[in-house]
Amino acid sequence: xxxxxxxxxxxxxxxxxxxxxxxxxxxxxxxxxxxxxxxxxxxxxxxxxxxxxxxxxxxxxxxxxxxxxxxxxxxxxxxxxxxxxxxxxxxxxxxxxxxxxxxxxxxxxxxxxxxxxxxxxxxxxxxxxxxxxxxxxxxxxxxxxxxxxxxxxxxxxxxxxxxxxxxxxxxxxxxxxxxxxxxxxxxxxxxxxxxxxxxxxxxxxxxxxxxxxxxxxxxxxxxxxxxxxxxxxxxxxxxxxxxxxxxxxxxxxxxxxxxxxxxxxxxxxxxxxxxxxxxxxxxxxxxxxxxxxxxxxxxxxxxxxxxxxxxxxxx
Length: 315
What we know:
alpha/beta; four-stranded mixed beta sheet; 10 helices; 7 strands; disordered C terminus
């Protein structure tokens, strides 16, 4: 009986000791919290960008933590404490993953949220640890082990293997031609930038289509703008199609509009009277072709310029 009491007391003391003297859960400084300072700055930056891209594509939240030692606590218990404290993944989907590396204890673990256990199974996580990370760590290559391990985790979660590349760069799966490959912007940022960019070049495109004389000058003048600016909003694939639509659509629309009565009347008035009216807007011809005015006031640019960049995100 006394032996049973002693065993119970000893178990309680061990449990209290693990709580009081176990490793403290660190503050999450980002997708990569390198408290053991074993990762180079280049790898941290590249890996963080790749994890961010993966989260934008899939919604899965992957975090990497390195800590020198666990002070005797089991890595399984510590990983659960970190996971619960950091609250990785979506509350409804439980789609978080923690990659934990403890160099002084020579231990590592991949902790998987409930929602991803069917995709990133225990066996698959073990394969990543044994086949990818362990060989690198044995050679002292923490950069390569963590980068390659995270890449394999992302590949499994996205349903396929990513090709391994030389060095420590970690890149997302190559997008196909129809996906947006431009800057990582939220849908709100794309809408606002799109309204600004397409509002301006769209206005001048409409002027070019509707205006006799100066229209073809604007067509060629706007070609570089339609080739470059849409990339910010649509990515290279979407911008290419948008550019093709402009190159073909402008002449086709203008060809049919030229056959309308109001266009021919405006063209005749410009030749005979030097002035014409389209939709309540007055057009007057000049030495450079024609100019637009509305209500007697002219339109001109203010000389401003755009920095062309900006991105934001939140946890």
